[in-house]
Structure formats: structure tokens, C-alpha cells
Design a protein that fits this description.
alpha/beta, Rossmann fold, 2 domains, 6-stranded parallel beta sheet, 5-stranded mixed beta sheet, 10 helices, 13 strands
Amino acid sequence: MLPSLTGSCLLDHVSETLLERCAFLATSAAGNPTHYMVEQALGQAELDWRFLTFEVDEDQLAPALEGLDVLGFRGVLLAAELRTPTVERLAALTPRARRAGSVNCLFRKDGKVIGDNTYGAALVDALGGNLESRRAVVIGDGRVATTVAAAVADAGADRVYLAGSDEQALTERIEHLADESTSYEALVVDANIVETPAGASIVVFAPDDDEEANRPSIDVSAADGKLTMVDTRLRGSRTRLVRFATERGATIIDGIDLFARETAMALALWTGMTFDRAPLQELAEEFLGV
């Protein structure tokens, strides 16, 4: 567990002329647009901050996090592969990070490093905020699906269907997420087909991997007529799911949109300023060659 270093982070109290510093941690940062996006966004906001990227193996994650804390870093973004293991190494988590079971960013408050998860909030924001009385299907067996399911439930969805290939994992996830306001139901993927239940108006494909071949076929014939389909994967080209959604006239939210929103929310936590999603999305698209 990363200790709360209140009082021991001397850099919180030294000269205000020191530049604020933030960082991105990944096991491999190659091909990831985070550094480019954040550095450009800080510059456009006229903040003379420094943003650094560090590659770190998971077995060195704890000392890396403690080092960034001791050195007074204002905030940290985490690559996908480090978001779950970071939870076990932090002393303080926001409620939404604890519920999601993963952390995508760290911020400093009152001398303490706090782990947060802005990804679910980014998805809810993209969906319009209030999901009261809506029903969602979340497809995936891991971290991303859990984060999404928790977020849509907390935003008011009255039923969340969890679709995946591992029945025991689905049962355990429902037990973890269970609350009084939302009904959860497991949909075990059979023959690689997900049948969207009647009344569902949101379908989220939320795998932990990026393999296009692993996407199940999705039968939306019984879904609500006003369907929104979400592909959480950060891709530089249109996925088969996006093409499928386009053919059916669904509203589409893609991974680049979500990535821009979660990054904007992390920047707001660090700086206290508002960052628009659109310019960040343009920067990500530029980097990925979209």
C-alpha cells in the first residue's frame, strides 16, 4: 500500500517558483497518445507545467508511485495495464474508483495522493449524464466492463445486463456491484452471440483487450429503437462494431471520444480548470492518424 505522505512531501511547501509536474505511467508508452495530448493541452491552457512519461514494470509499480509522491508530482495518469494493480498500492481511493476496482489517475489533495477513476464518468458524460430508467448491456469480462457497469448504475440505469463468457466471473461481479437502486442480470455469451434484451437502449462493448477478432456478434433486434452503441477500444480506424452500429442507425460513441473525456476530467482534477473534450479528441485523432 502506498502511504499517505501528509507532512512528508516537503515540495508542497517550498518555493512557489517550482514548476508543477505530472506524469504518465505505462509498461510501454509506444503508440499511446497520452503524452502528446496532455502536453499540448497544458500548453494551450498556458500552464507552464511539465508532463513526463515513465515506463515501469508492474513489479516496480509501488516504488514508482511512492517516488512520484515524495517528489511532489501533482497528478499521474495510468496506462490500461496498470489501472487494476494500482488499486492495491494506494492508501486513498475515491468512491467511484473503489467501486470500479481500478484507477486511471492520481491527484493530490491536502498533501495526500488519491486514486480516482474518471473513465466511467466519461462514459456517462458521453451518454448525456442522467440514465434514469434506461437499460444497458455491458459486454466484457474484466476491468473496463466493471468500471462501465458501476458508472451507468450510479447514473441511474434501472437495469444493467452484464454479458461475458465466464459465468462465475459475471456472478462475482454482480455481487461486487449489487446495490438497492439497480437490478443486475448476467448474460452468458453462447456461441459468441450476445442477444440484447428487450428495452435495452445502451450497448457497450468493453473488453480489456484490443483484439477485433474477439468481438462477439451482437443481436440488437429486440433492443429499444433509440439505440446507443459504445466501443470502448482506442482505435485509429473504424471498428466492425462502429460499422455495424452505423448500418443500424444507432448513436455511436467510440473509444477516442471516451479517452478525450477521461483525460479532460483528470486534467480538471489536477488544475482546477475546465478542459473541453473536443480539442483533446482532435489531438488524439491527430496522433493516431484518424
